[in-house]
Amino acid sequence: MPIALEIEVPIACFRQSHAREYLETYPVPPPSTIYGMLLSLVGETDRYQHCGTRLAIALLSEPKKSTVIRTFHRYKKRNIHDPSNIRPDYQELLTDI
To answer: Helix, strand, coil proportions of the chain in percent (round to 5)?
Structure first.
C-alpha cells in the first residue's frame, strides 16, 4: 500500500560524506535520512523494525543552492585565541526544498 508525504523545508543541507573544507550538499536527502525521519515520525525506536521498506524521493521544484561562509574553530594550538585555530569554511545550503 503506497503512502505519499509532502514535506517542505525552508533551509537544509544534506552534507556529502566526502566534503571536508567545502561542505557540499546532496540535492535531496539520502535514503537513510528519509528512513530515520519516517521512523521518528511514527515513534519507532527499533531502526530494524521496518527493514526492506522501499522509498522513492521526488522534488516538486528545483531548490535554490547558495553558499555561505562561516567561521570554523579547530584547536591545534593550546592558546585558544591563536589566529591559526580559526579559519573560514564554506557550506552549501538548499532553500525552499
So the answer is: 15, 25, 60
- The pLDDT tens digits of the residues spanning 43-76 come to 999 989 888 888 888 888 889 999 998 777 777 7
Strand, helix or coil for residue 39: helix
| Coil, helix or strand at residue 84 | helix
The residue among 65, 72, 74 whose CA lies nearest residue 92 is: 65
pTM over 0.70: no
